Each structure stands twice: as C-alpha cells, then as structure tokens.
Amino acid sequence: MELCYQLPVLPLDRPVPKHVLSRRGAISFSSSSSLFGAPDPRQLSQRRGAISYDSSDQTALYIRMLARAESAGSIPAQRIQRLFSFQRHLLSSRLLRGAPHLNPLHILDEDYCGQAKCMLEKVGSWNFDIFLFDRLTNGNSLVCLTFHLLNQYGLIELFQLDMVKVRRFLVLVQEDYHNQNPYHNAVHAADVTQAMHCYLREPKLTQSLTSCDILLGLLAAATHDLDHPGVNQPFLIKTNHYLAALYRNTSVLENHHWKSAVGLLRETKLFSHLPTEDSLSIERQLGSLILATDINRQNDYLSRFRTHLDENNLCLGNASHRHFILQMALKCADICNPCRPWELSKQWSEKVTEEFFHQGDIEKKHKLEVSPLCDSKANTIASVQIGFMTYVVEPLFAEWARFSDTRLSQTMLGHLGLNKASWSAMEPEASGSFEEGESEPARATEEPSSRALSQGSQES
C-alpha cells in the first residue's frame, strides 16, 4: 500500500518561528521531487528557503501523511487544503476545551495553533492583528475567532448548541465568503466580529445586553457580508443583476447577505432544537442587524442616534433600544478600519481601494459609467480615504463616543485623527477635491466607497 506524503503549504507561506529556524538540519524541496502532489511543484520550486528540524525530535516535523493507496499527483489542491484545515480545526478545538495534546512531539501546526491561542487570550484588544491571526490559523480566522467567542460568552452551553453544528455552520460561512475579493472576504468578517466583541465589552452594553443580544451581535458580524460579490449595489443595478431584480434595487447586497445567512442556519439546523417561533425571531432580528449596514441608510440611523443622545432617552432596559444599539455597534464595527492603528488601517485601506478600483476597471471594460471613486486614474488611496473618514467615519464615531465615552472610544478617535493626518500628508489636496461642488458630500462619498471601504454593507 503506497503512502502519500505532502509537504504542508503553511511553513512555506508563513514566517517560521525563530526558535525553529535555529535548529540543525533542513528539509529541502525542488520541482523534481516526487513528493509534491499539490500545489503545483512548479509553484513550490519558485520559493526560496528551507524548513529546519531537530534530529533529536525523531521525526520529520512538517511532513504529514495525507492519504493511502492514492498517487500524489491525483490529490486536488483544494482537498489537501481542506485536510490541513480539518486537522487544524481538530487541534484548535482541543486547545479551546483545554484537552491535553495526544502527540507529545512538537510539530509546526501545534506551534502555530499555540500562537493563535495566545492571541485569542487578548481577543478584546483593539490592537488585535487579524492578519497575523489569519496566518496562524491557516486562513481560518473567522471560524476560530467566532467559535472562541461563542464559547467564551458561554453561548454554546446556554443555548444548548450542538458543537458539531456550530463548527459546520461557521465553516460554511467562511467558505461562502469570496477570498478572491481583496476586501469583502472572510478576514474582513473576522475583523468585524472581533470589533463587535470589543463593543460588546463596553460597560453600557455589558450591563444591559442579554445573552440573546450577544449571540445575535456575533452572528450578524460574522455573516454581515456573506457571499459578497466584490462590487457595490449601483453596479448590480446598472448591470441588471438578478439580485437587483430580486430585491427590487433596495438594500440588494444586505438582503442577500441576510438570506444567505438564514439559508446556512437552516441547512445546518443550528437552531432546530429551539421552538419554531424562537428560531424565526432570531432570523428576523439577524436580518434587521445586517440590513442596518446599508450605507444608503447611514444618515437615517445617524440622525436617529443623535436624537436619542440629544434627548437622553435611550433606555437599554427596552428591547427595541438595545436592538438599535446593536445596529449602531455593527455599523461601527463594519467601518472601523480607519480607527485601527496605522499598520492595520493602512492595509485595509489598500485592500478596499484595490477592490474599488477593480470594479472601475470592469466598468471601463464593458463601457459602463464608472462609479464615483472607482476610477484609479482619477482617485488615489489617500483621496478616497480622506473623503471616507471625513464624511462617513468621523460623524458616526463621534456620536458613538457620546454614547459610550470610554477609553476605547477615545482610542478609536485618536487613531482616526492620526490616520487621517497620515493620508493627508500623502495627498495634501485630497480633502479639497471632495468638498468642491458637493452639497451632500456624505451621500456622494458613501455609496461608492462604503461597499468597497466598509465592505460589508456600508460602502464607504
């Protein structure tokens, strides 16, 4: 019986820990090696470097048996990826439950999962690096982070959720995001979920939100951009996309995200053990949260928020008021990238603008009118970001700080100011270009960029 071995992609794509590199010996690779079934050996041969090991470990640390009685060349790359992902899912599950390691030997997967576990201990930090966490979890940041939070809040036990169904639901959610999208992908969903967790821990919310509110908040954050096509609503409308017709040109993407989430909930039967009325209520409230991320309704929600704050009549003992605050929290989480530390914010800005400009390129190719801010020749990352921050992000987060005047709110506003100054230094005249001839700058700037910038529902 032939044993098929595959060299994991992870060590070649990820930085190898220094303490591993310091060991003696190495595993080399080349295009002529018969061990490589997938990915394409030609791709592997273009990489440089080696993977170190210690002979005293009595094992080749990073070579993993994947299948038996199967030729290496016949293993699809996608299947190999899923096998690795499944193994990491099992390992991360054991780590979350505090189960002891079954294999005493140190392997790279355990090293990476160990680092991911250390990061999860600080999941409430606003400096949480979701890009690093995604690398440490081999592209499974949304599954690992959301599962951890559901477990941390005690929601799995409280709602008597089947852990197998929970994991299957989260895996399906993650797979339904389009990872070819530079911005609207599973990493963005994980980032929004982590931000939502930070807001849920704010004193006013901690003291008033119910367990059901928290469950809804986390699920909405994880699914708020589900199956996002990488283009905004105006693009779908002018190309006569079936989704635009289905939802009558109203909150097209948000409705699709919501219905897609409901479809996965029902497919996995995550809430099948609950009374029908309760599960339907969860689906409706989930939709209400996701629909609130529609950038075209930004001014309506912001005006209502201001009115509540001016009149000081928010009562979080009232279920409808708590739901409204969850909507505002999700809106903030969806467009919080400019409020992150510069190193993280800059990466998100580049990704969202790349996706934005890609839409413009498609529009040019098909001789369609190029959407505002989607023309790479007429706009820069800096100009797009300055307009987005000025007319969309600042007004929203200023009101959130009025509602929750905490250290986190001040930190976010501080980062926002510094990031805006950094972009302004790169594009001194950018802010003026947004102000000329626009009586409603927010509306003009929001629509194109929120889908691309806020990537979720708030295209800013």
Overview of the structural elements:
By secondary structure, this protein is mainly alpha-helical. Helices cover 60% and strands 2% of the residues. The protein has 23 helices and 2 strands. It has helices at residues 10-13, 18-21, 41-45, 77-97, 108-120, 130-136, 141-152, 155-158, 163-176, 186-200, 203-206, 211-223, 233-238, 242-246, 252-268, 276-291, 298-311, 319-334, 342-365, 381-403, 407-426, 430-435, 441-454; strands at 3-6, 64-68. The chain has a two-stranded antiparallel sheet with strand order 1-2. Helix 7 runs antiparallel to helix 12 (211-223), helix 17 runs parallel beside helix 20 and helix 20 (381-403) packs antiparallel against helix 21. The radius of gyration is 23 Å and the shape is globular. The chain starts with a strand and ends in a 6-residue tail after the last helix. Residues 1-14, 23-73, 103-108 and 430-460 have low confidence and may be disordered.
